[in-house]
Every structure is written in C-alpha cells, then in structure tokens.
Amino acid sequence: MAHLAAGLARRWCPSSLQVVNFPVVQLHVSLRAMRASHTEFENAMNQVKLLKKDPGNEVKLKLYALYKQATEGPCNMPKPGVFDLISKAKWDAWNALGSLPKETAKQSYVDLVSSLNSSSKSSGQVEPRADSKPPGYETLVVTSEDGITKIMLNRPTKKNAMNPQMYHEIMLALEAASKDESSITVLTGSGDYYSSGNDLTNFTDIPSGGVQEKAKNGAILLRDFVGCFIDFPKPLIAVVNGPAVGIAVTTLGLFDAVYATDRATFHTPFSHLGQSPEGCSSHTFPRIMSPSKATEMLIFGKKLTAREACAQGLVTEVFPDSTFQKEVWTRLKAYAKLPPNAMRISKQVIRNKEKEKLHAINAEECSVLQERWLSDECMNAVVNFLSRKAKL
Ligand SMILES: CCCCCC/C=C/C(=O)SCCNC(=O)CCNC(=O)[C@H](O)C(C)(C)COP(=O)(O)OP(=O)(O)OC[C@H]1O[C@@H](n2cnc3c(N)ncnc32)[C@H](O)[C@@H]1OP(=O)(O)O
C-alpha cells in the first residue's frame, strides 16, 4: 500500500491533479441541482492545482476517475496487469464509474473540488456544537442529545412524503451530524408513518425547460441525496416507527442498523409506478435478502411485514409497537456511550471497500430513473395517484 501511495504521488495525472497535501474528505454533499458548465469544470481543474494539502489517495483516485469520465467518457482501455498497481488502481476507479454520463461526471468533479476547498477553508475553525440550534429546518426536527443526533422527518399529515425541500434538508442535517459531537445518527419519522417515499406531487412542478429538465434535475438531486448515505461516516441507524415506502425503504440498505416497530411495513411499488429501483437497492437488496426475494420486492412490489423484513435481513430487530420507542432508545443510548472513534473506524473498515462501487451503482440507477420518469407508465401512475384513482 505504501508503494501504491508513493507511486500515486509520483505519477499522478498532471492535467487534472498535482501532488498535494490535504486531509481526506469523507463526506461529499452537493446541494446543487445544476450541471457544471465548461467554465466551472475548468475552474475546478485549476483549483485542484492550487490545493495546499494532499487529499489522500482515495480522493485523488476519485478525482482522476471523474476527470477521465468527464473528458473521455466510459473507460474502454485494456485492464492493466495485476502487478502494475498504480495503473490498475486508476483503471479500477475509472472503470467503476460505468456508463456515468460525461455531464454528471463533470458536475461530480466540480462538487468534489468544491468540497475539498470548503474543507480547507474550515480547517482550524471551531466545529458547531452538537446542541447548537439547527439551521431552520422546515421539514425536519433535528435534535442532539446523549451522544445521538436524531433526524426526524416531520410532514406527518403527508405521511412524511419527501419533497425537494426535505431531500435538501436531510442532506444538510446529515452533513451537520457527520461533523457534530454525537457518536451515532438516527433517522426516524413523526406520526404514524416512517415515510411514504417520494412526494408524488413533485412531478407536477414542471420548470420552464419542460419535463426533460425536470427529470434531469430530479436525477441529480437523487444522486446527491443517496450519495450522502453512501458516504456517511458514523453509525447510521433507522428507527422505523411505521410503514415505509419507496426511497424510504431502499435507502435502508445503506444504514448500519434498522430497528422497526411491528406495525411497520416495507413496500417498493416501483413497477406499479412505472419506475425502477434506486437508493442502491439494485445492489444491496439481492445481497441482503437473496436475488429472488429482492425480485419480489423491487420488481413485483411485494409488501413485507416488519417480521418478514427482519427474517430477510433488511431489518435488524422488530419490537412490539407498545414498547418500541422505550426499548429502542434505551438501546441506542447505551450504544452511543461506546468510543466514537472506534465505531467510526469500524464502520470505515466495513463499508469503505464498497463505496466507489455504490457511487457507480447510484449513478446508473439515477440515469435509468431519469428515463423512466418520462415514460407513459410513470406519468399515468402519478396522474392516477393525484386524481385519487390509485393508492398503494
Ligand atoms: C428527487 C426525486 C427522487 C425520487 C426518488 C424515487 C422515489 C421513489 C419512491 O419513493 S416510489 C414511492 C412513492 N410513494 C407512493 O407511491 C405512496 C403514495 N401514497 C399512498 O399510496 C397513500 O397515501 C399511503 C398508502 C401512503 C397512505 O394512505 P392513507 O393512509 O389512506 O393516507 P392518505 O392517502 O390519505 O395520505 C394522507 C395525505 O398524505 C398524502 N400523501 C401520502 N403519501 C404521499 C406521497 N408519496 N406523495 C404525495 N402525497 C402523499 C396524501 O395525498 C394525503 O394528502 P391530503 O390529505 O389528501 O392532502
């Protein structure tokens, strides 16, 4: 590994990177819903050259891969031999991006450079206190207590359906939680639902660029949203207080533990909605529960009870609804007393190997969904829901 690091430092792609010295950035949060312009991309390339510190090999490989994808498209070079470690690491990183569109790669490159810059600016600054007031969330209630940051979805009258504001606020809250003093982070819902998934009225707000632009922006937002779960550095726990639908279910495959009330159900009616799996579930679900059980959920829309979801490995443990909150929070408070650095490092050891792959899967799922959103099947399903002809 030391050999690889030294080699990377010596032989890095000069057009996009220099040998620099900067702390590794683990969390990449982009709230931008626009694609990068050519100028933004060029600026980002210049900024990389000005970084004062080494971002670490993981980030450098990511920058290299995104640069190649943005400028040359998918990797079609022959795979280097196993002993050419540096070329192979670079090839692997590039190849892992699969068919990620050039424009998306460009935007990711710009976002990554910007996160490196902001991390540089904030280094040495005092971290926000865990109990400091959250920045005015409208769709969430975020609290920090007993070593636990709790992010509660708070649109109970809409069954905690996720609108664009909620997606953005969850990303912000995760970013803040990744840096605060808490040891673990919990996502839960208020009211009787965990979440009814994507807010289907999102489809009605069409920008001046038309449905194509809507789908494009939606795919970017979704990619960024799921990316935050992939990169989240601390133990992330779901406290599933009621039924969960769609993206609220798929993202559970990216959590470190999932505790559910016996009243919860787990439903991904993608085919019914003319849509396709997201949240990396096309990869995580077959691995968690076997390919055929994943098919029943993701393709046929089979709704699982909490006990079924637990038997299939999606849920860690189920509790009776009457004692759910008390039992779960007692347990979480005990877990939150464990040494936070050990927990964080153990999570890295468990998850880091898969991260790049998950980002590539996320990008692919988003680009498939972008097309699906423009299909008659999807449009009809949304119209049916909005005209109250169809419910799950
Ligand atoms: C950046 C974009 C990313 C997109 C990612 C892709 C994500 C995919 C998915 O998440 S697919 C899943 C989408 N969700 C659904 O299809 C659920 C639709 N909702 C329902 O079928 C039902 O509402 C229910 C079964 C969840 C609950 O039924 P019921 O108990 O009878 O309650 P109501 O239907 O009366 O609901 C109360 C109130 O909430 C509104 N609501 C519920 N869910 C949604 C939703 N997903 N989107 C928008 N609105 C929702 C419902 O309309 C009612 O509102 P009202 O009181 O009529 O104003």
Question: If you had to describe this structure to a student in words, what would you say it looks like?
Answer:
It is a single chain. The protein is 49% helix and 10% strand. By secondary structure, the protein is an alpha/beta fold. Helix 7 links the parallel strand 3 and strand 4 (236-240). Helix 3 runs antiparallel to helix 5 (102-122) and helix 9 packs across helix 10. The chain is globular and about 55 Å long. The model is unreliable at 1-34 and 122-134 (pLDDT under 50).
Ordered list of secondary-structure elements with their pairings:
Layout: H1 2-10, H2 38-50, H3 57-72, H4 85-95, H5 102-122, E1 140-145, E2 148-153, H6 164-179, E3 184-189, H7 210-231, E4 236-240, E5 244-245, H8 247-250, E6 257-261, E7 265-267, H9 281-289, H10 291-298, E8 304-305, H11 306-311, E9 317-319, H12 324-335, H13 340-372, H14 376-386
Parallel strand pairs: 2-3, 3-4, 4-6, 5-7, 6-9
Antiparallel strand pairs: 1-2, 7-8
Concise synopsis of the structure shown:
The chain has 392 residues and is α/β, with parallel strands linked by helices.
Keywords:
about 10% strand; disordered N terminus; about 400 residues; 9 strands; six-stranded mixed beta sheet; binds ligand LQSD347O; three-stranded mixed beta sheet; alpha/beta
